[in-house]
Amino acid sequence: MTGSGPQTAPSLDAEEVAKFARLAAEWWNPHGKFAVLHKFNPVRLAFIRDHVTARFARDPHGRRPFEGLALLDIGCGGGLLSEPMARLGANVVAIDPSATNIATARVHAEEAGLAIDYRVATAENLAAAGEDFDVILNMEVIEHVVDPAGFVAVCGALLKPGGLIFVATLNRTLKSFAFAIIGAEYVLGWLPRGTHHWEKFITPEELDGYLAASGLKAVDSAGVIFNPLTGAWARSSDTDVNYMTVADKPADP
């Protein structure tokens, strides 16, 4: 591995890394502390699949429409997104600064018969090594880093011209404080208390600015809302709490 180690990357928040490492054993328990991510996954997967197949002219109904695409999953945790991406045919590199998370992810992937290149690393490590990717997933990560603007810039350097980057995060609104902090962590217990810090949430306008400063252009955005009647998450025009953005890097002229 070249560049600074994963524990010294400028964007890294060591306390955040330690917090999620302590929960590593919970990643694949659909009824455990990450149950909300298991329920959230179908919406994230559909959004990613729709945009990747459209961008790279692939059949969205094909068995392995991501075949041959180099995909990076940043902050992969236990691999909840890495594994579906591999099943869709992508050549997946999945990174996390927590060795505990990576160990959990590797074991689960091996049991599932999936070849995923899991690494204890940061985006800065890969950028220093000159690696690049067709698709980058930056899902529920940016609100946990020290320097969001610098982090997006590093991600931009890792994206190939013509490629796509997906960012999912939380908007900094009074509604998100009520739902994502008070509701999800303290009332409903969906997430461990202290999972999120409201002041680190990022507005869509701020995210668009970080992307533009890094040579990236937001091409679509969608909110994600929870339906208490069905117990399911769905894509929505409401971006007041959770939202996803996809941006591209203009192809070389």
CATH class: Alpha Beta
CA radius of gyration is 17 Å
The largest sheet, given as strand count, sense and whether it forms a barrel, is: 8 strands, mixed
| Strand arrangement, major sheet | 3-2-1-4-5-8-6-7
What share of residues are in beta strands? 15-25%
**Overall tally of structural domains:** 1
Helix-strand pattern = HHEHEHEHEHEHHEEE
The third-level CATH topology is Rossmann fold
What is the first-to-last residue Cα distance?
32 Å
Oligomerization status of the protein chains: single chain
- The tally of beta strands, per DSSP, is 8
DSSP helix fraction:
25-40%
Mean pLDDT: 85
CATH superfamily: Vaccinia Virus protein VP39
The parts where pLDDT drops under 50 for at least 5 residues are: 1-5
In CATH terms, what is the architecture? 3-Layer(aba) Sandwich
Overall structural class, as computed from helix and strand content, comes to alpha/beta
Number of helices: 8
Overall body shape: globular
